[in-house]
Structures are given as C-alpha cells and as structure tokens.
Amino acid sequence: MLAVMFFLMTTGLIQGIMFVLAALSLSMSNSSVLVIASEIFPENLILTNGLMMGLAAGLSGALLIIFGVFAEQVGLYNTIISLNILLLLASAYSLLIPKRGSKCRLSDLQYA
User: Fold this and answer.
1) pLDDT at 65
2) What are the structural domain ranges in the chain?
C-alpha cells in the first residue's frame, strides 16, 4: 500500500510506475488465499476456489461503494490512510493463521 501513497505524492512516469506496483501488490494475495482455502477443503477444490474468487469479487464491489462514499466525505488522501491502517490490522491478524504442517483441524477451532 505504500505504492498507493507514493502514487498520490508523485507525478508523471513515477506516478505510473507506482500505480502498476500498487495493482500488482493488491493482486498478489489471491493465490495464497486460494491455496489456504484448498487446504481447508481438499475434497471440493473447484467449489472452494469458485466461492473464494466469487466472494472476493462481490465483497470488493460492495466495499468499493462504501469507500467511494467515504472518500467523498473525508477526501481521497484520508481514505488511503484509513485503508493502510486496515491493511496493517489485517496483516497482524494474518499472523494467527496456522503454519503449514501444523496439526490444526477445523474441529480444533473454538468458536466464541
């Protein structure tokens, strides 16, 4: 997301390069999400991958509207800052994902 911040602060060719880097960084997580979902439900790979890709597209469309309204209210720069904070929180939360090879099963999870 730093590329998005630099995109807003630069102009010209550097701004275009930052835009491409931001787009690449946003699309990099898709494959890891599909791998994690496939490991959770190995017997239904096609269904699992379809649901994950469909949910990602649907949620991003819905959140686009919400963040668009937010950007109109508080400004684009403040919206980008808010999204960076959300990204940091999600990154911290991702550390709770069990490591590959650990003996965690769905039946071991406790629901609040």
Assistant:
1) 93
2) 2-94
Task: Name all contacts of 24-31 with Cβ < 8 Å and 24+ positions apart.
Answer: 25/1, 30/56
| Residue 7, CA distances (Å) to 40, 68, 112 in order | 37, 18, 41
Q: CA triplet 3, 87, 93: central angle to 5 degrees? A: 145
Structure token pair of residue 11: 């102009």
Q: What is the pLDDT of residues 34-72, one digit of tens each?
A: 888 888 888 888 888 888 888 888 998 899 899 999 999
Give dist(CA 35, CA 31) in Å, integer.
Answer: 6
Rounded CA separation 109/97 (Å) = 12
Q: How many CB atoms lie within 10 A of CB 65?
A: 9
What's the rounded Cα separation, in Å, for the pair 8 and 6?
5
